[in-house]
Amino acid sequence: MQSGGGILRQPMSVWATAFAAVVAFMGIGLVDPILPSIAQGLKATPSQVSLLFTSYFLVTAVAMLITGWVSSRIGGKRTLMAGLALVIVFAALAGTSTGVGELVGFRAGWGLGNALFVATALAVIVGAASGGAEAAIILYEAALGLGISAGPLVGALLGDWNWRAPFFGTATLMAVGFVLIVTLLRATPKPAARISLAAPIRALAHGGLSTTAFTALFYNFAFFTVLAFTPFILHMSPYGIGAVFFGWGVCVALASVFGAPPLQRRIGSVNVLHLSLALLAVFQIGIALSGHTGIIVFTVLSGIPIGLNNTVFTESAMEVSDAPRPVASAGYNFVRWMGGALAPFIATKLGEEIGVAVPYALGAACCLAGMAILYVRRHHLRVLTRVDADHALQDAAAPAG
Predict the structure, then answer these.
(1) CA-CA distances (angstroms) from residue 237 to 36, 88, 231, 240, 245?
(2) What percent of the chain has a predicted confidence (pLDDT) above 70?
(3) Could you give the C-alpha distances from 59 to 53, 86, 98, 331, 340, in angstroms and in order?
(4) CA dihedral sign of residues 365, 369, 375, 381
(5) Are 174 and 87 in contact (CB under 8 A)?
(6) How confident is the model at residue 8 (pLDDT cuts 50, 70, 90)?
(7) Helix axes 46-74, 325-353, angle to 10 degrees
(8) Handedness of CA 312, 296, 150, 109 (dihedral sign)
C-alpha cells in the first residue's frame, strides 16, 4: 500500500465522487440539529419525527439489494447520476412538506437515491483510486466522516433560519455533485457479468460475511440511538446541537482515517471491533447516567468508536468473502442498515414512554450482543487475520515517506 501521501494523490474523478459522497453523508446528520424544530413546526412527537431516519434507512437497506443489479446493467456512472438525481428531487420536496407524513415519505425517496449512490460510489472509488482498495476505503470513510461532521453544522446554520432550508441546501449541493460527476467521471464499463437480484442474499450464506453483517446490525442500532435520540435530550438550540454533533463527527472522521489503520496493524481487525464496541457501550452508559455536561462529553467521545467501527466493518465486509465487492457490499449494507432503520423509532419511543436512560441501555446491550456474535462465530473471520498480516507486510516493504 502507498503511504498517506498516495491516498491524497487521486484522479479528479475520484475527488468528484468523494465530494458527492460527502454531501450524501451530510444528509444523515443534517436533520439532527433541527429535529426539535421539525417536531415543533409540524406539531409532531419526537417518535413521529424519528421516522425521518426510519423511512430513510429502511428504504436504503432494501434498495441495497438492487444496486448491483442496476449498476451491472447501466454502468456505475449512470447509477451514480440516477441516485444523485433522486436525492436532489426528494430533498427539495422534503423542504415543501406540510405534515410529518409527507416529510417521512420524501425522506424514503431520498433513501432510495442514497442507496443507489452510496453503494456505487464505494465501488467507483475502489476501482479508480490509486493506492489499492484499502486506501480507497479509507478515502471513502473520510468522506463519510467529513459529511457526517459537516451535516449538523449545515443543518444548524440553515435550520436556525427555517427548518425547511437544510433540505433545499442539500438539494443544491447535490446538484453541484451531479455536475461534477457528469463532467469529471468517465463512463465506467459495465461488468462482464450481470448481477442477479438474488446475488446479495446468496452472498450472505458465507459465514464470514453474515457474521460481519449481523454484528454491524447491532452496532448500527447503537450508533443511531446516539444520532437520532440525543438531540431531544440536549435541550439546546439548533446551533448548540449542531456544535455537539460537529465535534462528534470530527471524532468519527479522525478515528476512521487515522485511528483504525494503525490499530488494525497492531491488534488485528477483529480485536479492534471488540475494543470499539466495548467503548461505545461504555459511552452509551455514560450518556444514560450523566447530567447535561456529561451527555455532551460522552456524545462527542462516542464518535471515536463509531469511526473505528465504520472503517473496520467496511474493510471486513469487502475482504471476508470471495463474493465480488459490489455484491458483498450490497448484502452487508442490506443487513446493517436495518439497524439504522429500527433504532431511531424504537429508541425514541422507549425514551418517551419509559425514560431517557432506557434507549442508551438498550444501545449498550446491542454492543455487547455484537461482541458475542464476533466471539461465537470467530472461526468465520480467520481470513481477516491473514489480510491484516498482508497489509502489515506491505507497509513494512513500502519506502519511507
Answers:
(1) 9, 27, 10, 5, 12
(2) 92
(3) 10, 13, 22, 14, 11
(4) negative
(5) yes
(6) low
(7) 170
(8) positive
**pLDDT tens across 214-242, in order?**
999 999 999 999 999 999 999 998 889 99
Cell of 290: 450523566
Per-residue DSSP letters for 60-108? HHHHHHHHHHHHHHH-HHHHHHHHHHHHHHHHHHHTT-SSHHHHHHHHH
Give the Cβ contact number of residue 41 at 10 Å: 16
d(CA 330, CA 60): 10
331 within 8 A of 216, measured Cβ to Cβ:
no
pTM of the model: 0.86
CA atoms of 72 and 55, how far apart (whole Å): 26
Higher pLDDT, 311 or 134: 311
What lies within 8 Å, CB to CB, of 125 at 6+ separation is: 14, 17, 18, 21, 136, 139, 140
Using CA atoms, how far apart are residues 81 and 76, in angstroms rounded to an integer? 9
Taking alpha carbons only, the member of 188, 176, 180 closest to residue 126 is: 188
